[in-house]
# Entry
Amino acid sequence: MPSRRQLLAAVSAATVAGFAGCSGSESGGSDTVDCHTSAVEHGEGGVLDGGAQGTVESGTVRLAVPLSVDDVRENDVDALEVYDAADDLAHVIPVSPADAGVMANKVGVAEGNLLYEQSLGDRPLHGRYRVAAVTETGVTVDSVTVEFNCFTDVSD
# Structure
């Protein structure tokens, strides 16, 4: 029987695939003709159990990070820090449970969920990023490291 973490990761990965497929992204999941994403390491917390995923929208590669409003609130998550392969801080994405009102108007984002995206550049783009969920005081409550390959525009 799979562990709770494995089950949550599988369900969350399916949710992310649904988000990506419904949000107008050309990438419908973690392994499509546009992008392939793999989680290579996960921290001890549960905030980032949904992982992170490389997606493509209008030729632009985005890093998509799904979160639960409850997890953000209960863990006092204030930001997502995105570190590149050299472990240098590349992006800081502000996070708030209050964003749920705006997210409710986004196609493909279910009630009680947040979907944060960071534009990374035009495809083809390949990378390794570590995403850390941090509190206002800078305490890391969870992290996930993903590798992705977002390929040139290909036809089926």
